[in-house]
Amino acid sequence: MSYRITDPCNGCGACGRLCPVNAIRGEKNTLHTVTRDLCIECGACGRVCPLHAVTDPFGIVCTLVKKSEWERPQFDNKTCMSCRICIDACPVHCLSLSGAASPNDPHGYPYMAEEKTCVGCGFCARECPVEAITMVVSR
């Protein structure tokens, strides 16, 4: 399954510019399409479409969400085991691992290195084996 772009699309290109895997194709002012084999179902295209022309894999029309209201990962360093799975799961590579927290704690912890790059997909939180990541709207 993948996201799909429907007839209301006016070809503005917002979805294609944001897609982290370049799965969206189309000329300016024409209906765009999603390449099913490339789509990773991050949902970014649906959150930026001003015309509600994107449906999720279940056929539900996506809603435009201001980028300032997108959920972003919040890390619980007390639970985190520094495995880096979240960093590897991020399709836009916006997470990084810090240096050692202190002399008493030699572990590095994940943090948002490139906040503007984050598409709010939540893959990091879904893949975390110890549930140390929560997706929240940061104000």
Notable features of this structure?
single chain; 139 residues; alpha+beta; Alpha-Beta Plaits; two-stranded antiparallel sheet; two-stranded antiparallel ribbon; 17% strand
Written description of the protein model:
- With 139 residues, the chain is of the alpha+beta class.
- It folds into 2 domains: 1-65, Alpha-Beta Plaits, CATH 3.30.70; 67-137, 2-Layer Sandwich (Alpha-Beta Plaits), CATH 3.30.70.
- The chain is 14% helix and 17% strand.
- The chain has helices at 14-18, 44-48, 85-89, 123-127; strands spanning 4-5, 24-25, 33-34, 54-55, 71-75, 95-97, 110-112, 133-137.
- The strands form 4 sheets. It has a two-stranded antiparallel sheet with strand order 1-4.
- A hairpin with a 7-residue loop joins strand 2 (24-25) and strand 3.
- The longest helix is centred in the first third of the chain and has 5 residues, at 14-18.
- The chain starts with a strand and ends with a strand.
- The relative contact order is 0.19.
- The model has no long low-confidence stretch (mean pLDDT 95).
How would you describe the shape?
Answer: elongated
The CATH topology assignment of the largest domain is: Alpha-Beta Plaits
Low-confidence stretches: none
Distance between the termini: 33 Å
Overall radius of gyration: 17 Å
Strand line-up in the sheet with most strands? 1-4
β-strand percent reads: 15-25%
Q: What is the CATH-assigned architecture of the largest domain? A: 2-Layer Sandwich
Helix content: 10-25%
By helix and strand content, what is the structural category? alpha+beta
SS elements, strand count: 8
Give the number of helices: 4
In total, how many domains does the architecture comprise? 2
The first-level CATH class name of the largest domain: Alpha Beta
- The SSE order reads EHEEHEEHEEHE
Major sheet size, sense and barrel closure: 2 strands, antiparallel
| Overall pLDDT confidence | 95
